[in-house]
Amino acid sequence: MNAGLQRTIGRLERHKAELVQWIEQWPHGRLAYKPTPVKWSALEVLDHLRKTELAVLHSCERNLKSRKHLVSPSERAKAILFLTMIRLPIKVTVPEAASFVRPYPITYLQTVLESWAAERALLKAFLGSLPTSTENVGLVFHPTVGWMNLRTVMSFRSVHLRHHEYQLRRIKKACGRIRT
């Protein structure tokens, strides 16, 4: 694995660890709190993050084998705009084409964290085995952007995690308004 990719993985790991440490401080009853019936709980947000990472990994594995998709200049430009947009604290709905990353109803924090840790280990193993000639290979098709290469995929993972921190802060704030 090249040094840049190792740094990116290190940042992802640190960011995830900070997020998990913060979430583990929440009272258990607050983790399942949903501000409204259609909004997600903190546990569901974590499950969505886990499911998205796993879906991205599977897509990368599948598309790396075929190498039939190349990332176009317009897809690179759309990716830059998309990543910039989701850095903002705005609400974004999961596109219907990506509905498979919507969360399951989760009851226990440890359940989602154990799955996420196992799946992150799979990601590290995959990245460690990557050939260096993947720069322009389309590894993930995002419904908004189109094809994304490894660099964009890794940026997406980082920005996506940060994006959902905003959502978790809104949930925590809403929790503070309820009486226990």
Structure description:
The chain has 180 residues and is mainly α. It has a single domain, classed as dinb family like domain (Four Helix Bundle (Hemerythrin (Met), subunit A), Up-down Bundle). It is 62% helix and 3% strand. The protein contains six helices and two strands; from the N terminus they run H-H-H-H-H-E-E-H. Strands 1-2 form a two-stranded antiparallel ribbon. Strand 1 and strand 2 form a beta hairpin. The model has no long low-confidence stretch (mean pLDDT 89).
What is the gyration radius calculated from CA atoms? 17 Å
Number of helices: 6
Work out the number of β strands: 2
What would the principal axes of the Cα set say about the shape?
globular
- Distance N to C terminus: 49 Å
CATH class: Mainly Alpha
- Helix and strand composition category: mainly alpha
Helical residue percent band: 55-70%
Low-confidence stretches: none
**CATH third-level topology:** Four Helix Bundle (Hemerythrin (Met), subunit A)
Mean pLDDT: 89
Q: Please indicate the count of domains.
A: 1
H/E topology pattern: HHHHHEEH
CATH architecture: Up-down Bundle
Query: Largest sheet at a glance?
Result: 2 strands, antiparallel
The order of strands across the largest sheet is 1-2
β-strand percent reads: under 5%
CATH superfamily: dinb family like domain
